[in-house]
Design brief:
The structure is a single chain. The chain has 352 residues and is an alpha/beta fold. It contains 15 helices and twelve strands. β7 and β8 (267-268) form a beta hairpin. α1 crosses α2 (26-38), α2 (26-38) packs across α6 (110-123) and α3 crosses α5. The longest helix is centred in the C-terminal third of the chain and has 21 residues, at 319-339. The protein is elongated.
C-alpha cells in the first residue's frame, strides 16, 4: 500500500471512529493517526516493565467479553482492548509479548505523522484541525494522550499491537485459555513450505515464553529415503523418533533431549536438553502424523497464498534447490496433506 492509499484509509477509519465516538477531540484524533502510523514502537521498553504497566491497569478493570477485542487503526496496527483481553485470559505477560513482537521498525517519522494530520485536517471530514496539537507531534519528547472528555466518556484501556496478529488471534486466545489450566501445552503448527511457520512459531514462543522444535530436524537420514519409504504419505519425517525423543517425554513431564539431524551433512548433531517450558510449539510439515497429533493440545494450520510462498522460496533458494522443491519436496508435502485431509476441522486455520 502506497502512502496516499494509507493516508486515505487512516482518514476513513478516523471519520468512522468519530461517528462511533463523537466525544473525540483534536488530541484524540492526533493520537489515532500517531498510533496508526507509528504503532507501538515509541512505547517499548523491557518486557518486565511493559508487563508491570499492563498488570497495574488491568487489575482495576472489569473483564468484558462483549467489547470488541481488536480495533483496526491501519493496515499495520490495531488496538487490543484490555477488558475483553482479560475476559479471554490474555495475561499482562501475553499482551506484553504481543506488543514486543509487534515492533517492526518505524516506517514513518513524527514529521510524517504531523504532515498526515494536516492533510486530513484540510479535508474537513474528521475532528482534526490544523492547530497547535499537530505542530507538537515532531517533538520527540512529546507523547499523545487522550482528552479528558474522551477518557471520562469512553474509559479507554488498550495497547497497540501489530495488525499481523489479527488472523492469529483465535490461536492466541486458545493457547492462552488452555495454557492457564495445564503444566505443559503441546501446540503443532503445520502448513505448506514457505508459509511462514518458523517465523510464527518463534513469535508465539516469545509471546508465551515457550520453546520451538522443528520437524525439519527430524527428517529421515538419506540411507532411509528409499522409494518405498517416500511413497508413504509423510514418510520423509521420522515421526517415531520425534515422538519418542520430544513429544512423549514433554507430555509426560520428563526432560526432553533432542538429537537434531543435519540433512545437508547427513549427520546427527550432539544431544541437547530442551529448556523446560509451559508451551512447546512443534513447527513444520508432518507434525500431524498419527504418532504425533494424538498428543497435541492445540493444532494450527498456516495457510499463505501460493504466490507469496513462491516469492519467498525464490528469494532464499538457488535454481537447483527450487527444482528440488517443485519436483520432490512440494509433491511429497501435498501427498501428506491429501492423505490426512489437512487442514481438518480440528485445526485452527490461520490465513495470512
Amino acid at each position: 500500500m502506497n502512502t496516499d492509499s494509507l493516508e486515505r484509509e487512516i482518514a476513513d477509519r478516523l471519520s468512522a471512529e468519530f461517528l462511533h465516538r463523537p466525544a473525540m477531540r483534536q488530541e484524540d484524533a492526533v493520537k489515532f493517526v500517531f498510533q496508526a502510523m507509528l504503532g507501538v514502537g515509541h512505547l517499548l521498553s523491557s518486557r518486565e516493565n511493559v508487563t508491570r504497566s499492563i498488570a497495574r491497569e488491568t487489575e482495576a478493570l472489569q473483564a468484558d467479553s462483549a467489547e470488541p477485542l481488536l480495533e483496526i487503526l491501519s493496515p499495520a496496527w490495531c488496538r487490543l482492548n484490555l477488558r475483553p483481553a482479560k475476559a479471554a485470559k490474555l495475561t499482562p505477560g501475553i499482551i506484553a509479548g504481543l506488543m514486543l513482537t509487534s515492533d517492526s521498525g518505524r516506517l514513518f517519522t513524527r514529521q510524517d505523522v504531523a504532515d498526515c494530520c494536516r492533510r486530513i485536517a484540510l479535508s474537513g471530514d474528521s475532528p482534526l484541525t490544523d492547530d497547535a496539537v499537530s505542530d507538537r507531534v515532531p517533538d520527540e519528547q512529546w507523547l499523545p494522550s487522550h482528552s479528558a472528555l474522551y477518557r471520562e466518556t469512553y474509559h479507554p484501556a488498550y495497547r497497540v499491537i501489530s495488525a499481523d496478529w489479527i488472523p492469529c488471534m483465535k490461536a492466541v486466545r486458545n493457547i492462552a485459555e488452555k495454557a492457564a489450566g495445564v503444566s505443559r501445552l503441546l501446540v503443532t503448527l503445520d502448513g505448506p513450505c514457505a508459509s511462514g511457520k518458523t517465523t510464527l512459531a518463534r513469535k508465539l514462543a516469545r509471546v508465551f515464553g515457550g520453546e520451538v522444535v522443528h520437524t525439519d530436524d527430524y527428517v529421515i537420514p538419506h540411507a532411509q529415503k528409499t522409494p518405498e519409504r517416500l511413497a508413504v504419505p509423510g514418510g520423509n519425517c521420522d515421526a517415531e523418533r520425534l515422538a519418542g525423543e520430544v513429544v512423549i517425554p514433554y507430555k509426560s513431564g520428563a526432560p526432553v533431549r533432542t538429537r537434531k539431524y543435519d540433512c545437508r551433512k547427513d549427520v546427527f548433531l550432539p544431544e541437547e536438553q530442551l529448556p523446560d517450558a509451559r508451551v512447546l510449539i512443534l513447527e513444520g510439515s508432518y507434525c500431524n502424523l498419527p504418532a504425533i497429533r494424538k498428543y497435541a493440545d492445540i493444532r494450527l494450520f498456516l495457510d499463505t497464498p501460493r504466490e507469496i510462498r513462491e516469492a519467498r522460496l525464490m528469494s532464499r533458494e538457488s535454481a537447483a534447490s527450487m527444482r528440488q522443491f517443485h519436483e520432490r519436496w512440494i509433491p511429497l508435502e501435498n501427498a501428506y496433506f491429501e492423505a490426512y485431509h489437512l487442514p481438518d476441522d480440528g485445526q485452527i486455520l490461520i490465513s495470512m
